[in-house]
Structures are given as C-alpha cells and as structure tokens.
Amino acid sequence: MQPYTKKAIKAGVFSAIGYGTFTAALTYYDNGNFEIWKLLFKIIFFGIFMGLYFNYSFRKQFEKNLNNN
Q1: Cα–Cα distance between 35 and 32 in angstroms, integer?
Q2: Please, which residues have CB within 8 angstroms of residue 35's CB and are 6 or more apart in sequence?
Q3: Are 42 and 20 in contact (CB under 8 A)?
C-alpha cells in the first residue's frame, strides 16, 4: 500500500468522525429527531467521498514531489 493511500484513509476517517460529531451536535441543538441510521449513512458516505478526494489529492502531491527530485 502506498504511503499516500494510508494517509488518505486516515484523513477520510477523521473527517467523517468530525462531520458526524458536528451533524449530531446540530441535530441535538435543534431538538430534532435523532436517527442513528441516518447519521451512520451520512458518516459513511462522507467518509468514502473524502477518502477518495484525499487519495487523489495526496497522490498528485506525491507524484509532483517525486518528479521534482
């Protein structure tokens, strides 16, 4: 596994945890109907999307640094 892939997975997981915490806090603050399955779906979807984005971004950065050396 490439080092940028590991970094992208970590970044995706941490961003999903942050997003989930923020979303849950907003729902709790608004006294909304808290549904755990809805929250989990959002967290998983956001985590996958951000993982793919970070993988693309880190890969481009890695290739750029590799070509400069």
Answers
A1: 9
A2: none
A3: yes
Alpha-carbon torsion angle 49, 18, 6, 68, nearest 10:
80
Q: What proportion of the chain, given as a percentage, has pLDDT over 90?
A: 55
* Cα–Cα distance for residue pair 24/47, rounded to 1 Å: 15
CA 62 – CA 23 distance, rounded (Å)? 32
Find how far residue 52's CA is from the centre of its chain.
8
Distances from the Cα of 20 to the Cα of 3, 25, 30, 55, angstroms: 26, 8, 15, 21
Q: What is the pTM of this model?
A: 0.80
Tokens of 35: 């549904």
